[in-house]
Design goal:
The chain is α/β, with parallel strands linked by helices. It has eight helices and twelve strands. A hairpin with a 4-residue loop joins strand 11 and strand 12. The structure holds zinc ion.
Length: about 260
Amino acid sequence: MDRFAVISDIHGNLHALEAVLGEVDRLGHTEVVCLGDIVGYGPFPHKCVDLTIRCCSIIVRGNHEEAVINADREMEFNGPAREAIMWTRGVLGPLHLDALGRLAETAHPNDSVLCIHDSPAAGSMDYVHDAYAASEAFPAFAEPICLVGHTHVPVVFEALRLGDQDAGPMAPAEIVVHQAEPGVPVPLCPDRRYICNPGSVGQPRDADPRASFAVLDMNDRTFTVHRTAYDIDAAQLATRQAGLPTVLADRLAIGA
Ligand code: ZN
């Protein structure tokens, strides 16, 4: 796979997922990689699991999938998130729970790219959200590019040296942070390494409420974030009607 769409953190938001897959189709992409958190927070876990399995060539497991299939992990979540995990576990049947349990933790769409939901740092549930966290994550993988989700914020971290495990720790000053503006390709140089985050389909947290995804093009060597408008009112109404915590509906309108 040399050119494919990257989606992550759908969180049961079917309205956002359908809008994103429509846009992926319109852009002419046939392959989609999903970085996990298909469920949690939103009211349509079944349909989002079904649609993701149908449309994605690769899916890795997120921490919300972990918590839905393993109740011991629930305590890692705050009030509304934990409530949504319990609600999701209650509405998913054995077929869907089994499908989530079979998702791999990591995947390789090609030799140059590692996919993982949260961070390549071993055993971590950490958020790669700034240059400091990125400086700890880069030595933990060998591939030129690592695709992560989990923070719900689109961004590209660029390491100024190859920095494999033998080269010792990396300093935050050795990381360039690209804010990944929508529609503006971030060039990926062959002599640098990258951690790329497509943002969140179903619950963006960068103050832009539009659904976020990205396209990785290994031929052009670019990572391009895209934003897609969707019916936020309908997603909020469905969230409230499902009886999920109202804060999970409210935040969709402000991208927080
Ligand atoms: Zn998430």
